[in-house]
Amino acid sequence: MTALIDIKGVRHAYATAAGPLPVLDGLEVSVEEGGFCAVVGPSGCGKSTLTRLVAGLMHPDEGEVWLHGERVRGPRSTVGMAFQNPVLLEWRSILKNVMLPLEIVPNGLKGNAAKERARHLLSLVGLEDFEDKRPSELSGGMRQRASLCRALVHQPEVLILDEPFGALDAFTREDLWQTMHNLKEKEPFTGVLITHDLREAIFLGDQVVVLSGRPARTQYVMNIARSVPADLEELYTAEAAERLNILRHQIEIAQGRAPQEAAQ
């Protein structure tokens, strides 16, 4: 497989009143085409900064970010993004919220073709009967499903998910994990997930990258062979428990609560 996302030696710092605040320090991350990379690490270590660099919304101070063999120098229309807050527009129906990127990102879909594309995605996440509803008429989980459809409607090659399920209850979150697997099967994309939930990381990711404490570097990489179709029962196996223990220990290392020599 070919790396679709390649982050090479990236260093970045934010300007503050007290001087530069280093966030990333020689970060190296590679995601294969069609892969799904879950990124975990201590709070404030630079996970969201990583997503902005991949999307071209920021430029690194040093190093390079490559997407499909091209160096990222600005915002990319081939990237879709979904966040913890769905940010749906209340004055638009769910269908028109999903269609919004098609009004902004040129991709040849207009009129009835655009509506059918949005309706197809809504049907994949079980919202086919809610296209005329307003966001306030939907539950939090349903709004997040609509947000995922909106992020995918223009058929991006990369989907970035910045803690999209963090504000949901445990049962809704697990239901949406299964929805993500179903979407990826029907709507192939290369995914990057930022999460604090290690169970979420090992269930959705075929690669889990652990970032060190700030300034972040790539501390540990876990590769996971995905079962098809994915089943939540996987999370209750001895193999899953071992993976979770390894990742918990890596987080302890990143937080400075365990010896550094155990990182590898």
CATH topology (fold) name of the domain at 1-76 and 197-264: Rossmann fold
Low-confidence stretches: none
What gross morphology would you assign? globular
Distance between the terminal alpha carbons, to the nearest Å?
A: 25 Å
Count up the helices: 7
What is the number of strand segments? Answer: 10
CATH architecture of the domain at 1-76 and 197-264, please?
Answer: 3-Layer(aba) Sandwich
Helix content, binned percent = 25-40%
Biggest sheet strand order reads 6-7-8-3-9-10
Description:
- By secondary structure, this protein is α/β, with parallel strands linked by helices.
- The chain has helices spanning 47-55, 94-104, 111-124, 140-152, 170-186, 198-204, 238-254; strands at residues 3-16, 19-32, 36-40, 62-67, 70-71, 79-83, 158-162, 190-194, 207-211, 218-223.
- Helix 2 (94-104) crosses helix 3 (111-124) and helix 2 runs parallel beside helix 4 (140-152).
- The protein is globular.
- The mean pLDDT is 90.
Structure, briefly:
The protein has 264 residues and is α/β, with parallel strands linked by helices. The protein is 33% helix and 25% strand. The protein has helices at 47-55, 94-104, 111-124, 140-152, 170-186, 198-204, 238-254; strands at 3-16, 19-32, 36-40, 62-67, 70-71, 79-83, 158-162, 190-194, 207-211, 218-223.
Topology, element by element:
Elements lengths: L2 E14 L2 E14 L3 E5 L6 H9 L6 E6 L2 E2 L7 E5 L10 H11 L6 H14 L15 H13 L5 E5 L7 H17 L3 E5 L3 H7 L2 E5 L6 E6 L14 H17 L10
Parallel strand pairs: 3-8, 3-9, 6-7, 7-8
Antiparallel strand pairs: 1-2, 1-4, 4-5, 9-10
Helix pairs in contact: 2-3, 2-4
